[in-house]
């Protein structure tokens, strides 16, 4: 997830302060890992530099003066563009798991054992996520469902690749 664009989207509902933005971000997206204040303020500085937001002024608070930020037209345009961009898989279509499997075959290592280790890790993660879904807020369940579907796709790939290891090994060594 592009945190800076998620923050820009949250800011698009109206002017806000950094502290309020962090609180809102964490309540919606931060269930697994909250965003640090330092990251909020460095992102705000970059967005000001890039013309996506502007500082409206400062208000006195219990501590340092609170800066108020608002999204510019350029920021609204960038957010609208991002919201309509389709998310695509990695352009190389190769993951670490793919690379490890191929390298295990190249090195005459046990690729089937590697895939089996990954399968067990994925199944364990699925059990953790499924348990976490029980009683979780709707947004958390939505994120967990997304992760579960990605793991299911990986498991299908692992099963298919395991069934093809002999043929893949022959092809790799025919070209190498």
Structure in words:
66% of the residues lie in helices and 9% in strands. It contains 7 helices and 3 strands, in the order H-E-H-H-E-E-H-H-H-H. A 3-stranded antiparallel beta sheet has the order 1-3-2. Strand 2 and strand 3 form a beta hairpin. Helix 2 crosses helix 3 and helix 6 runs antiparallel to helix 7. The longest helix has 38 residues, at 138-175. It is elongated and about 70 Å long. The mean pLDDT is 89.
Task: Give the strand order of the largest sheet, numbering strands 1, 2, ... along the chain.
Answer: 1-3-2
C-alpha Rg, in Å? 23 Å
Helix percentage range: 55-70%
- Measured between the Cα atoms of the first and last residue, the distance is 38 Å
Shape: elongated
Please identify the structural class as seen in this structure: mainly alpha
Average pLDDT taken over every residue: 89
Number of strands: 3
The unreliable regions are none
Helix-strand sequence: HEHHEEHHHH
Tally of DSSP helical segments: 7
Q: What percent strand?
A: 5-15%
Largest sheet: 3 strands, antiparallel
Brief characterization of the structure:
This protein is mainly alpha-helical.
Question: Which descriptors apply to this entry?
Answer:
3 strands; 7 helices; 176 residues; three-stranded antiparallel β-sheet; mainly alpha; 66% helix
């Amino acid at each position: 997830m592009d945190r800076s664009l998620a923050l820009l989207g949250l800011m698009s509902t109206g002017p806000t302060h950094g502290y309020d933005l962090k609180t809102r971000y964490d309540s919606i997206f931060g269930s697994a890992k909250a965003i640090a204040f330092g990251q909020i303020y460095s992102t705000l500085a970059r967005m000001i530099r890039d013309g996506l937001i502007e500082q409206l002024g400062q208000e006195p608070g219990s501590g340092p003066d609170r800066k108020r930020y608002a999204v510019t037209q350029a920021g609204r345009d960038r957010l609208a563009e991002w919201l309509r961009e389709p998310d695509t898989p990695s352009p190389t279509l190769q993951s670490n798991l793919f690379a490890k499997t191929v390298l295990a075959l190249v090195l005459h290592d046990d690729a089937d054992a590697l895939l089996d280790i990954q399968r067990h890790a994925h199944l364990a993660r699925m059990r953790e996520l499924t348990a976490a879904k029980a009683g979780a807020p709707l947004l958390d369940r939505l994120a967990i469902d997304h992760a579960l579907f990605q793991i299911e796709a990986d498991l299908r790939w692992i099963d298919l690749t395991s069934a093809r290891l002999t043929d893949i090994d022959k092809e790799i060594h025919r070209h190498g």
